[in-house]
Specification:
four-stranded mixed β-sheet; alpha/beta; 31% strand
Length: 192
């Protein structure tokens, strides 16, 4: 009888631990609607924590709405929210929105290589001005140390500050397009 109680207690404890792990791993965030210029094709970069940019505000539909410029950029003073959400992507004109299709059953999409990333530390500090051996904490919480006078650097990344993705003109195979046809990210899209 005591053995049965121990097994029951262990089972309840295990279920509780697994439920807690599942709840912490499935954190949701506010979804985002990316509003792109009509027929825009190319790389898109959204920069977060820009001091003079407007904060994100959820609309009546519960989505943040980020309007992308004709050159593929947007900025906000808000921080990146962690978690999952089902974002939407649109081509916009003055009266209509056109949904950009994502991840069909045949593994095709118009949205490719979505990625949050850190800003390059050189956006915040000139390595030539750093003292060798001293650790510096930068704006995004990253840490950098100049190791020698030959360009050696130690870097530990901080918060995500950049979100990039590529918009194709037509539905393209997820694997083939990303691995073989996707153009490199232009240099101007890497600066924070």
């Amino acid at each position: 009888m005591a053995n049965c109680k121990i097994k029951t207690l262990f089972t309840i404890l295990l279920i509780g631990v697994l439920a807690g792990c599942f709840a912490s791993c499935s954190k949701s965030r506010t979804p985002t609607a990316y509003e792109l210029p009509l027929r825009y094709v190319g790389w898109v970069t959204v920069k977060f924590e820009k001091p003079n940019a407007p904060p994100l505000k959820a609309g009546d539909d519960g989505f943040y709405h980020i309007k992308i410029s004709d050159s593929g950029y947007a900025e906000t003073s808000s921080q990146v929210e962690e978690g999952w959400a089902e974002d939407k992507y649109f081509w916009m004109d003055s009266t209509k929105e056109f949904v950009l299709q994502q991840y069909s059953e045949d593994k095709t999409t118009m949205i490719h290589s979505e990625a949050f990333s850190n800003a390059d530390y050189r956006n915040f500090v000139n390595p030539d001005t750093l003292q060798i051996g001293k650790e510096y904490t930068l704006y995004d919480g990253s840490r950098v140390t100049k190791l020698d006078d030959k360009g050696g650097m130690s870097y530990e990344s901080g918060r995500y500050l950049v979100f990039t993705f590529y918009v194709s003109k037509h539905m393209e195979n997820v694997w083939d397009y990303t691995n073989y046809k996707l153009p490199p990210v232009p240099e101007e899209h890497t600066a924070w």
